[in-house]
Amino acid sequence: MKRIDYYFWINSDWAYLGADRLEAIARKHDAELNYMPVDLPHVYSRTGGILLSKRAPERQRYRITELRRFCEKLEIHVNPEPKHMCPNGDLASRVVIAAKRRNLPLLELTKAIFKAEWADEKDISDPETLLSIVNEAGFDGKTLFSESENRPIQEEYWCYTQHAIAAGAFGSPSYVYRGELFWGQDRLAFLDEALSR
């Protein structure tokens, strides 16, 4: 069976913009979509990336320009500078892994978390806020929160981060198919083509 390794940061506005199209591509090719949330600040520290807040003003301005273009094209609302932008995403990432271990629908869960940060002005690093987001999305937040604290899930999160680096990923979202890296939701057409070959 074909498999797409999907490395993403739970704070990634670009992963949010690509989420539905990625799932559609996986379904089109009957491919397994392997969700792998990562600690992107650590990936950056190993691969030369720079956190958004530390980038040059010119780069920050262009990011907003590109976001607006894609939001208009995809008809998805993203606030480029939300009130709680890119807080600590470790708990939310572990909650996603806990849901993955239960074979729950990860598209709905991750999109709810993305939307909370990028459209609804919510702080996804706040446990009570995150619990509410998860519950409102139709998941058993209490159970997922409890399981997210288990050592195996903490280790899995760390392993995904290391696997991303080993696979050559340096940003979010990154998709890997048969050893080939596709970085960014704007490369999804190339991933689609690779799966067709």
Structure, explained:
The chain is of the alpha+beta class and 197 residues long. The chain has one domain (3-196): Glutaredoxin (3-Layer(aba) Sandwich), CATH 3.40.30.10. The protein is globular, with a radius of gyration of 16 Å. It contains nine helices and four strands, in the order βαβαααααααββα. It has helices at residues 13-28, 40-47, 57-74, 90-101, 106-118, 127-136, 141-148, 151-166, 188-196; strands at 3-8, 32-37, 174-177, 180-183. It has a four-stranded mixed β-sheet. The two termini are 14 Å apart.
What is the CATH first-level class name? Alpha Beta
Mean pLDDT: 98
The N- to C-terminal Cα distance equals 14 Å
Number of strand elements: 4
- How many domains? The number is 1
How much helical structure, as a percent, in the residues? 55-70%
Radius of gyration: 16 Å
Q: Strand share of the residues?
A: 5-15%
CATH-assigned homologous superfamily: Glutaredoxin
The global form is globular
CATH topology: Glutaredoxin
Give the ordered list of helices and strands: EHEHHHHHHHEEH
Structural class: alpha+beta
Low-pLDDT runs of 5+ residues are none
Q: Sheet with the most strands?
A: 4 strands, mixed
Strand order of the largest sheet: 2-1-3-4
Enzyme class: isomerase
EC number: 5.99.1.4
Protein name: 2-hydroxychromene-2-carboxylate isomerase
Family: Belongs to the GST superfamily. NadH family.
